[in-house]
Every structure is written in structure tokens, then in C-alpha cells.
């Protein structure tokens, strides 16, 4: 994730947008459709929350971290106005045509970022969502909180992400238990 989320040294308004989207996706665990359809007003920089309308038109608030906030501030202050070129849009992440982005275009952005970072594994928007959930659980977050942030209606869906934690527990047991 660290390599993927590190932008290249050469920057442009579109690269700024792309890496802001990657950072926000990893920081929030949003679905790709939720990310590309975020309205400008959904992002609260002062409280570091994004308001998401997810599956079934259910609304949820999802926090994001300081690194994502810093990228968002930079994007909103400098890159977005340059991309829009005086046009108006209510969509947070806009294309060079001043419109909202498609899911397909964001898939291409992830592939471009992976290639730039020298990552050969296949990545998708869901890879970042999966990493978000897995990293939270691995570092001690409770399943119910992760469920709420992901927007899962059934906790059984969220439990899919606990397999990594079980493997970690086995590893710890093997390493530290005298009969491991």
C-alpha cells in the first residue's frame, strides 16, 4: 500500500487528483462507485469525515486520516480548480472534461499507479477496500466498527476479512507457545 499511495516526484493536477482518490479510498474503504460519485459537499475537512450514500441508499459517516486530509486540501485548493478551468461541478473528483469520473476510469488510474510504483500484482479498487478492512482488524479494530465503516448490512460479510487475523494468531501461537 505504501508504494501504491506514494505519488511520483513529477506532479500535475490530474496526478494530484488520482493520488488523492487513492489515498481517500484506502483511508475510508469506500466502494469505487461511492468514491467516484462523492458530491463535493460530502467531504468535511474540519472533522475528517465523509458522508457516503451506499447500497440501498443507506447513509453513513466514514472517518479519514490526516494523510488523506492533506491530499484532499491540496487537491481542492489547487488541482481541482485547474482541472475544472472555470467550469462548475458538484462532484468531488472531476475529469478534464469537468464531469464526474466513471468506475472504469478509476480502474485505469489504479493500474497506472501500480505500474508507476513497480507493482506487478493485479490491483483493483476492491484491493484497497480489502486492505483498509484487513489493516483495521489486524491492528485491533472491532468487527462492528469495521462493518459500519464498510457499509455492510450483515456482519457475516465483514467477517470475511477476519481470516488474515486468524492467520496472524496462528503465527503468534506458533512463535511464542512452548508447544506451538
Characterization of this structure:
By secondary structure, the chain is mainly alpha-helical. Helix content is 54%, strand content 7%. It has nine helices and three strands, in the order H-H-H-E-E-E-H-H-H-H-H-H. The two termini are 31 Å apart. The mean pLDDT is 90.
Shape category: globular
Q: Please, what is the average pLDDT?
A: 90
Largest sheet: 3 strands, antiparallel
Order of helices and strands: HHHEEEHHHHHH
Q: Report the portion of residues in β strands.
A: 5-15%
- Measured between the Cα atoms of the first and last residue, the distance is 31 Å
- Give the structural class: mainly alpha
Number of H- or I-type helical stretches: 9
Strand order of the largest sheet: 1-2-3
Regarding quaternary structure, how should these chains be classified? single chain
Say how many strands there are. Answer: 3
Radius of gyration, CA atoms, in whole angstroms: 18 Å
Low-confidence stretches are none
Helix content: 40-55%
Topology, element by element:
Layout: H1 2-5, H2 13-28, H3 32-36, E1 43-44, E2 49-53, E3 59-63, H4 66-84, H5 103-116, H6 125-138, H7 143-150, H8 155-158, H9 163-176
Antiparallel strand pairs: 1-2, 2-3
Helix pairs in contact: 2-4, 2-6
List keywords for this structure.
3-stranded antiparallel sheet; mainly alpha; 180 residues
In short:
54% of the residues lie in helices and 7% in strands.
